[in-house]
Amino acid sequence: MEQYINTITSRLRGYSWEIYQVKTEFLKSSSNQLKIEQVIKSSESGFSITVKKNGRWGFGFASAVDRENIEKALEKALQMVEVSDEDQYITFQKPMPDNREKIELFDSYTSNKLEEKLKIHIPVEVEEKIRSLDDRIKTVRECSFSEKITTTFIINSEGLKVEEKTSLYTLTAGVVAEEKNDSQIFWNFHQSRFLSDLNIQRFAKETVSGAVSLLGATPRETTRIPVLFTPYAFSLMLEAFFPAFSGEFLINGKSFFEQKEGLSVASENVTILDNGRLPGGAGSRNFDDEGVPTGKKAVIEKGVFRGFLHNLYTANASGQTSTGNGFRNNFYTRPAVQPTNFYLVPSENLQLPDRYFTVIEMLGLHTASPVTGDFSVGVSGFIKENGTSYPVSGMTLAGNFFQLLNDIKGIGNDLQFFGRFGSPSVLVSEMVLGGL
């Protein structure tokens, strides 16, 4: 791309502009019956050009970086400027002094030096470990490993020029446990920027435990009961209701937290962070897809709402400053407000009551409303009472996420991340567990 910059800028005199380019190399292998079943290798690249003049803006993109495609993308962007409405909130990032030490996000050893055949074999290693842990595991589905190497390049008319290379490694597995006339399915995945951070032993144990622990589960009568969300379960909750913390919801009048900065919105032991500089984090970056440096921001601190996450557009529209959360889903979309590493901060104040329900699986969380906070999901897990745990399934759990934040009574120190969302175990004082 850089060899074409002079050509592009000569066409854009009198315009503000930004060029975004991304290159991705992808490797995925899957096993079945302890043999490699599929290997996928692919690469993708693309770029976009955003231009602005007299408050009007245009956007063009292409998947191949060559003179012809650059001309087409540029022409499309310039034509769009002529017909678009004025939008004062679209701006481009200025260069900023950043004396912070850069966090390392690229696993150069695994990417460049580890033999590809060893990476391809990883699913077999994972499957072997899963099958060896419990005879009740009868089927291992879609046991896979993937490596994704991404290079991001941004340059604009403000003088910004940044480039970054990242790696991301993912383990995925689904298992079926069977005993007597019952069977249970459980899916699991782990991600990290560095292969060495993916603990195959722990991953296998979690996957097996998630399936076999629910064998024999049955519905029980409806009851009001304290609820313990596992790290995975509460991470899903954070993911479902993340939009409420986004500047996009704020400027569209959809966020529950509008005009609540400085007010108590949760239990005082609740602190929720978005940390783009978390070492090894799946969402960690030194800068976002607009060139804004990432950082660590509390959206809730000791129960008090501290503010929204922003990209440049939502920051401009709300009179705030970008928090470095402007990310693109691909090269042909504009940046949206997305999390980096979004998580509930762990604590040491988790004391379990004599009777409680542990959430292992949730179904239907995609129907939850981040606007109202309401949710109703199918759940499986355990009821513990009188010192005995009873597996249960076919139950429902309904409530309101914003009220739930106030009802949190205990938080564990077992923080785990699932992609870009993370949580420790969380105890909620009481909820209605619907059953028979």
Which terms would index this structure?
single chain; 436 residues; alpha+beta; PmbA/TldD fold; 2 domains; 6-stranded antiparallel beta sheet; 20 strands; 20% helix; globular
Alpha-carbon distance between the two ends: 63 Å
Instruction: Please count the beta strands (DSSP E, at least 2 residues each).
Output: 20
Rg, Cα atoms, Å: 24 Å
Rounded mean pLDDT score: 95
Classify the secondary structure makeup into a structural class. Answer: alpha+beta
Shape: globular
For the largest sheet, list the strands in their spatial order: 3-2-1-4-5-6
What does this 3D model show about the protein?
This protein is of the alpha+beta class. It has two domains: 211 residues, 2-Layer Sandwich (PmbA/TldD fold), CATH 3.30.2290; 220 residues, no CATH class. It has a six-stranded antiparallel sheet. Strands 10-9-8-13-19-18 form a six-stranded mixed sheet, covered by helices on one side. A five-stranded mixed β-barrel has the order 7-14-15-16-20. Strand 18 and strand 19 form a beta hairpin. The model has no long low-confidence stretch (mean pLDDT 95).
